[in-house]
Each structure stands twice: as C-alpha cells, then as structure tokens.
Specification:
Elements: H1 2-11, H2 14-38, H3 49-61, H4 72-86, H5 92-104, H6 116-125, H7 131-136, H8 138-141, H9 148-151, H10 154-159, H11 165-177, H12 183-206, H13 214-227, H14 243-261, H15 268-275, H16 285-294
Binding site for Mg(2+): 71-73
Cofactor: Mg(2+)
Pfam families: ADP_ribosyl_GH
Length: 308
Amino acid sequence: MRKCIYILRRRLSFSIISEMERFIRGSFYGSVFGDACGAPFELRDEVPLRDVLKFFDKRLSGKDTSILHYTDDSEMALGICESLKRANGFSASDLAKTFSDAFFRAPFYRLYGGSIRSLFEKMGAMNFVNPSSIAAAQFNGSGSYGNGGGMRVTSAAIYGLKLRTDDFNKLICDVTAVTHTHPLALYGALLQAHALRRVITLSAKYGGSFEIDAGILISDLVKDLENADLSAYAFGRPSNFYKNAYQQFLDKISSVQKFINQDRRPSVVEVVSKLGNGEPAVEAIPTALYVFLQCLKPLTEIPYEVSF
C-alpha cells in the first residue's frame, strides 16, 4: 500500500495531502488489513463471532504469527494505483491489462473469482481494446453484479478526491466497468466511494476526533446515488436499465437507517436477513456501511476498541 500512497501523493496537492495523509493512510491500511484478516474466513458458509474473536486473540497475543495474505481485492486496488499513474488518469485498456497481468502471475491465495480467467483471456485476445464491452457480455449480457468494484475502489476514490462530483462518478464507474458492468455493481462502487470520500473530507476538515452523524451521512449518500448518471454504461441495454438497481440500493440504505435509529441494536440474523452478506454488491456494500456506522459506538461483545 505504500506504493499507492506515494502515487496518490503525486496526484493531490501538498496542502491536501498534509491535511489528509493520515486519513488516506488509514483508508488504505484499513482496506488491506480487513482483506488479509478476512481472507481466512472467506470460503466459509458461516463465521461465528467466537471464531473471529479467537482469531484476533491469537494474533494480538502473539500465539499466531503466521503470514496473512491479501486477496485479489487488494491486488486490484494496487493495480488501479499503478495504472492511474502510468496513464496519468483512467485508461480502460491499461487498467484491464494491469488486472490481467496480475491475475496470471498471482499465487493461489489471492482467491480470484471463478469467471475472471475467461474474462481476461477474452480481453487479451482483443489486445485489451474496449474491455468494458467484453465485461458487459458476461452472464448473458447482464454483466457482473458482484461486490468487486466496491472492494477495490479505495484507490480510485482517493485519486479523485479533488474532482467535481460528476467527474468523480465517471472515474468510479469507469474503473468498475472494466470488470463489473451491472448497475448493481456500479451503484455499489459509487456508494462505497462516496462514503469514503465524505468521511475523509470531514475528518480532514474537523479532525479525527469529530463524531460522524450517521443520519446526515446516510442522507448525503442517498443524494450521491440519486445524482449519479449511469446512462453511459448501458452497453445496449434499455435506457432505464439502472432504475431497478437504484431502487434496490435505496431500500437497503433505508434499512440501514432504520437499524441505526432503533434503540435496540439488531441481531446478526436480522442484519443478514434485511441487508444480506453475499457476493452481490447490493448484499455486501450496504451491509459494510451499516457495520461501519454501528462500530462507531462500543460493542460490548467485542473486547477491542478502535479510535477513529
């Protein structure tokens, strides 16, 4: 992640970096930390809290010092940094080739998805020209609706901190659509990117000790999705192709709002039932938003405290 930070330091002005650098570092380190610590649980159907606490107890006590490996999400986040630097901005062909090169030299523990090999092979056969159209042809023309765009979006979101909102949205969607063109995937990446952008900007403005108002943040994120124009990513689909996906995300965010506002904290079963915990972006990104907001307050069953 140091390489990503160096690249983005060159992109942003010194004044912005001097104010935001520790929050930017925290975003990158938090992403790779969560990725590497989550990888051992990734292929399990159920993950009881006791297993997670046992995992961290062993790590913090020094009983387990084995190497943790990051997955394809961090690999691709790094690839975004490298490509943005090399191309001095977004280049679909360069980013697709960067992703592909990393995949074909990756060790098994990167845990890439099963369909990605054929996708990169098809892109390579076309010399990585117009890769998004190849990605859009996946799954009978629907494109991938997985959470991968959101999982790797930190690099692009930070690179675009200074951009106008329309240009920021375009960057996020362009980067995502290289492999994920379904509107659910695009909205998932946008939700994650705007949440990151807003929290970093507020942190730099008010300092790391300020309290995030969950209600205001959620309201702002709804506006961010409402103002995003996905018409350029139709890839031959009807002009209203994204309407249903947009409504699905609004419904999930509404559930996040209700969970945050209620006096009794919902159970894990309730959260999973309403928000999901699957691979589709709509079952992962809103859940991640809820967990972030919930963890701003101490949780009695988790004996670790994090100061934001």
